[in-house]
Amino acid sequence: MSALPVAVTCGEPAGIGPEIAAAAWAELKGDVPMLWIGDPRHLPGGTPIAEIADPAEAVRVCDTALPVFPHRFAGPVTPGTPDLSLAQGVVDAIRIGVDLVRSGSASALCTAPIHKKVLQDGAGFAYPGHTEFLAHLGGDVDVVMMLASDQLRVVPATIHIALSDVPSALTPGRLRRVIETTATGLRERFGIAAPRLAVAGLNPHAGEGGAMGREELEWIGPMIDEIAQSGLDVSGPKSADTMFHAAARETYDAAICMYHDQALIPIKTLDFDRGVNVTLGLPFVRTSPDHGTAFDIAGKGIANPSSMIEALRMAAKMAAA
């Protein structure tokens, strides 16, 4: 067991975050010590908790109770019904979690899902999402979103933008940064000494020699060749429709994809319940379950905690690496 806990932010309290955190603690309490940051009133009734003031106490109490680093919100919560008055507390919990990790009081950060519209309306949240806010808290660094499971790791070079905006957003500088940040992350966070990267094409059949688009010929392919000549094991551009079957996945450690769905459809098809969101490029380890707040099932006791469990396990492994 690690000498430091993984800091777990509460996320949107009206969503499934509190209940999957409690379920993850029940599953992992002997293996992955954690420290939940939020209002104890928002946890499921009957959850054994221990409110602590010193994060170092978390490891000692984690076997018998969920360690809670209390941050009082404006009020209680009704599962499934977001309350704008609680939004600032969610933002505060994220800041606290980052501070704990950066100060050396926690080994890694695992964030429960937030609801961006609630934060924007209730707390004036000025960021497109969790990842961008964490990049700001980490020193305004360039970051990369990776979705990871035991079967596949994928990195979208562009994320939450319209498909029509992808060709203009996908610049050579952006793609190069994504490739290099992914390689560094695999070395430093996953312990892969010589990472192998496969890069998908932007167009169907990777442009099919220019018949279906010329980006692959004009700059994507030449840039990949240039990076490969510098010593990085990177290949492509590859036709995305042949990159994700079992034999193809054996040939690389991560797939670099050009847009959101090109990356997320294969991993969610292969391992929907256990995929983990990882942010590479931060000065600390951050993971998150790969799903949203699920207001429709919050508080009903039916939320699947598998992705949160895997996110905590992965956070601990990455911190150790």
Features:
Isopropylmalate Dehydrogenase, 2 domains, NAD binding, 321 residues, oxidoreductase, alpha/beta, twelve-stranded mixed sheet, 4-hydroxythreonine-4-phosphate dehydrogenase, single chain, 11 helices, globular
Structure in words:
The chain has a twelve-stranded mixed β-sheet with strand order 3-4-2-1-5-12-11-6-7-10-8-9, sandwiched between helices. It has two domains: 1-141 and 281-321, Isopropylmalate Dehydrogenase, CATH 3.40.718.10; 151-270, 3-Layer(aba) Sandwich (Isopropylmalate Dehydrogenase). α3 packs across α4 (116-123). The protein is 36% helix and 17% strand. The protein has helices at 17-28, 57-61, 87-102, 116-123, 130-137, 166-169, 172-190, 215-229, 246-249, 260-270, 306-320; strands spanning 6-9, 34-38, 49-51, 66-70, 108-111, 144-148, 153-156, 196-200, 233-238, 254-257, 276-280, 286-289. It is globular. Belongs to the PdxA family. It is an enzyme of class 1 (oxidoreductase).
Summarize the structure.
By secondary structure, the chain is of the alpha/beta class.
Write the layout of secondary structure elements.
Layout lengths: L5 E4 L7 H12 L5 E5 L10 E3 L5 H5 L4 E5 L16 H16 L5 E4 L4 H8 L6 H8 L6 E5 L4 E4 L9 H4 L2 H19 L5 E5 L14 H15 L3 E6 L7 H4 L4 E4 L2 H11 L5 E5 L5 E4 L16 H15 L1
Parallel strand pairs: 1-2, 1-5, 2-4, 3-4, 5-12, 7-10, 8-9, 8-10
Antiparallel strand pairs: 6-7, 6-11, 11-12
Helix pairs in contact: 1-11, 3-4
